[in-house]
Amino acid sequence: MFKKIIKGGNRKPSKSDANSTSLYGYNQAENRNLGSAPAPNVVVSHPSRGAVGAPNTQSGGAAAPMTTPPLGNMEPLPSFRDVPVVDRHNLFLQKLQICCFQFDFTDTMKSVREKEIKRQTLVELVEYIQTGSGKIAEHCHEEMIKMVGANIFRCLPPESHENTGQENAEPEEEDMYLEPSWPHLQLVYELLLRYIVSSDTDTKVAKRYIDHSFVLKLLDLFDSEDPREREYLKTILHRIYGKFMVHRPFIRKAINNIFYRFIYETERQNGIAVYHQQLSYCIVQFVEKDYKLADTVIRGLLKYWPVINCQKEVLFLGELEEVLEATRATEFQRCMVPLFRQVARCINSSHFQVAERSLFLWNNEHVVSLISQNRSVILPIIYEALERNVVGHWNQAVHGLTVSVRKMFMEMDSEMFQECQRHYEEKQAKTREVEQRRQLTWKRLADAASQG
């Protein structure tokens, strides 16, 4: 695995530093002899994962990540209740600085005390924001978003299939990667969520730091294998979309780019699950908002109709019914001919689930109403498919549904039904006649060959 590690030397502490108490909750004078100090930025890239990128403090995305503080020198800060109101903003900043430190969670016995101090500090910050104990000063907004970025924006580990070499293998539930730093990470996400939804958060100020760069990095984290993290990210992104209207076009475009990358490049993205139901819902919402889109949507479904995947056909038929429920008669007439040619093919499908789902369309009152108004066009298209099922479909459920649909058409318009029946019988008679001629021709050829 390719790794790029940028390292920098430690800064030599000055005399003024040595005699002052740091905001991090420990004395730098005690730290001087241990030879430890907050480390510079560390960027680790992996060739197969889209790296989140180096933190950018100017964009409000993340603060410089810090290493573990010297053991035994991190001290807990007083709670907000124990200090005067005028000092709470400074205490808030000090707690943010403590939470910028990162810890190694692969070793559960390492820095146990310091991990607990950070965890408790995060709990206090969440409670402070949630209860609205005090309005956050403008300069505190930036520091808090930097702290959040320092914790959540990181290079994701390689996926499990990259270690095994199995490209198409789906990760087993018991083998699913869970972020070891989740005890801290969850609280950071909770803090960010409470900050966004808080009525005390000034959107005009917050949008300076929750900017396009921050949103892009947040979207990159959807590739995390930990489902708990993805769930938090989904909720937070939804709240950002709702509160920061100025970011909405950018968020839609960024998500669109992720989909394009998924389709044409990676074919893998942990944040993209089975999305047909949600996508279908969105499409129906478009049609309900503008009924003229129904023809475009239906023709689009027909254009990309699955050929050999029966399960996808069932999904398409379900979506088709939902779209038809929102379709008006004028738009239905534009696409009904190609639509019911496809429905006729589905009715005769050898896969019983496809045939059954297509016949279920006649259980929908609105769809039946549209069909009834245009039966003179639709019945001639599907009559032959119905007759084939009645005569010879192997599945009894499909056979029963076909008989019911056939009876429904007969009751709608008996004259039209009889006319279609007559045309079908004439076509069958011509087909039998052509077959008899073909057989006779082959017989004459065989007789001529035997005599020769």
Polypeptide structure, described:
The chain is mainly alpha-helical and 452 residues long. The chain is 61% helix and 0% strand. It contains 20 helices and no strands. It has helices at 15-18, 28-32, 88-99, 112-131, 138-152, 160-164, 182-197, 203-206, 212-220, 227-243, 248-266, 276-289, 293-303, 310-325, 329-347, 352-359, 365-373, 375-392, 396-412, 414-451. It is elongated and about 110 Å long. Residues 1-64 have low confidence and may be disordered. It comes from Trapa natans. Belongs to the phosphatase 2A regulatory subunit. Residues 1-13 have a biased composition (Basic residues).
Write the layout of secondary structure elements.
Elements: H1 15-18, H2 28-32, H3 88-99, H4 112-131, H5 138-152, H6 160-164, H7 182-197, H8 203-206, H9 212-220, H10 227-243, H11 248-266, H12 276-289, H13 293-303, H14 310-325, H15 329-347, H16 352-359, H17 365-373, H18 375-392, H19 396-412, H20 414-451
Helix pairs in contact: 3-4, 3-5, 4-7, 5-7, 7-10, 9-11, 12-14, 13-14, 13-15, 14-16, 15-16, 15-18, 16-19, 18-19, 18-20, 19-20
